[in-house]
């Protein structure tokens, strides 16, 4: 029953915080915690009278080591697919590197425990803690990214801003960018059907490897989809997500359009974009377009790493005391070993002449 009470507390916290601002990252932590404790609590209560619940609890205990192997192998396989289809950039190697880490870290922990005594146990425990923290944070991020991306935000936007995502060598939109544009057109048409007529803002400048600004190609695509030219306002100077938001807001303000925005990006990118919009003080919500399945693991990992870097002090505060404690234990163990080791005895054998 205690677990169900904890689940209820976190569920209430999630609902209250989501109502206040659905873009807050802590919403994902509250939701994930509520789901985990709710499932465990329900199974524990049901185990008193249900054999399937007992079996389910046993399977959950076995699921952790099995899931590590399955998850690691799946990530490695996805990493190989990414390298084959998308090239050898660092971003495309993330799922491969994560899969190798998932498979190797348990082996490293065992070696540390067996070979290095108290220090090894301390370091292995610290590795387990950091891994658990990263895993829980990633699950929270991924779960809430999906939930947030499927929300009905209930705003009447003054503009639908579609974020750029690179062009092909010939200056036409890529499949990834086409997915964003199609989602933007869908959102724009839904608003028009409700009696609201927002502008459509394709947002993206010209990269160093692009023959023209992304916004120019995006505008052409929107016009080909039947969007009237007077409803399209291109923003062609931005090169980052932050600039997509800031310069689109400036452009709309100069055009006399103020009010809430609906930002459109890929589904793996919605939560980071929403968090950034919140920090920038923009009155904006975000919706996502679907991404090719093989691309999703690496894309989510890349976004998660970027969020960890942007919010690095949260991780420092959360893990810092444990790192300090582990260092103190390791140093104390070394000093104890040094003081308890027997002193060397000098050679006092007499020399017989």
List the helices and strands and how they pair.
Blueprint: H1 2-20, H2 26-46, H3 51-86, H4 94-149, E1 159-163, H5 175-193, E2 199-203, H6 214-224, H7 241-254, E3 261-266, H8 270-279, E4 284-289, H9 296-310, H10 312-340
Parallel strand pairs: 1-2, 1-3, 3-4
Rg (CA only): 27 Å
From the spread of the alpha carbons, the general shape counts as: globular
Helix content: 55-70%
Query: Helix-strand pattern, N to C?
Result: HHHHEHEHHEHEHH
**Briefly, what CATH class of one domain?**
Alpha Beta
Beta fraction: 5-15%
For the record, give the distance between the C-alpha atoms at the N and C termini, rounded to a whole number: 86 Å
User: Residue-averaged pLDDT, rounded?
Assistant: 83
Kindly name the structural category.
Answer: alpha/beta
The major β-sheet equals: 4 strands, parallel
Which CATH-level-2 architecture of one domain?
A: 3-Layer(aba) Sandwich
CATH topology call of one domain? Rossmann fold
- Annotated CATH homologous superfamily of one domain: HUPs
Contiguous helical run count: 10
Q: Which strand order spans the largest sheet, edge to edge or round the barrel? A: 2-1-3-4
Q: Are there runs of 5+ residues with pLDDT below 50, and where?
A: 349-353
* Extended strand count: 4
């Amino acid at each position: 029953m205690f677990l169900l009470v904890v689940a209820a507390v976190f569920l209430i916290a999630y609902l209250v915080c989501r109502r206040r601002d659905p873009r807050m990252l802590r919403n994902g932590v509250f939701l994930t915690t509520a789901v985990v404790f709710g499932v465990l609590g329900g199974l524990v209560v049901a185990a008193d009278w249900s054999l399937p619940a007992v079996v389910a609890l046993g399977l959950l205990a076995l699921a952790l080591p099995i899931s590590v192997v399955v998850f690691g192998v799946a990530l490695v396989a996805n990493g190989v697919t990414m390298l084959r289809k998308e090239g050898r950039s660092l971003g495309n190697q993330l799922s491969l590197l994560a899969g190798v880490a998932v498979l190797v870290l348990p082996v490293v922990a065992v070696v540390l425990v067996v070979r290095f005594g108290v220090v090894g146990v301390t370091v292995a425990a610290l590795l387990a803690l950091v891994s658990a923290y990263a895993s829980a944070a990633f699950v929270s991020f991924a779960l809430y990214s999906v939930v947030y991306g499927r929300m009905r935000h209930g705003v009447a936007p003054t503009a639908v801003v579609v974020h750029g995502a690179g062009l092909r060598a010939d200056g036409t939109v890529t499949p990834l960018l086409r997915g964003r544009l199609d989602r933007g057109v869908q959102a724009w048409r839904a608003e028009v059907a409700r009696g609201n007529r927002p502008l459509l803002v394709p947002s993206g400048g010209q990269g160093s490897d692009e023959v023209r600004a992304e916004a120019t190609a995006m505008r052409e695509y929107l016009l080909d989809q039947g969007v009237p030219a007077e409803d399209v306002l291109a923003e062609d100077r931005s090169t980052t997500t932050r600039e997509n938001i800031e310069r689109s807001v400036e452009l709309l303000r100069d055009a006399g359009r103020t009010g809430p925005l609906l930002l459109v990006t890929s589904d793996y990118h919605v939560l980071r974009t929403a968090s950034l919009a919140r920090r920038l003080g923009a009155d904006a919500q975000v919706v996502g377009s679907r991404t090719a399945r093989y691309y999703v693991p690496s894309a989510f990992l890349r976004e998660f790493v970027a969020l960890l870097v942007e919010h690095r002090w949260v991780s420092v505060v959360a893990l810092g005391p444990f790192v300090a404690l582990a260092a103190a234990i390791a140093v104390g163990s070394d000093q104890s070993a040094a003081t308890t080791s027997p002193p060397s005895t000098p050679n006092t054998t007499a020399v017989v002449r």
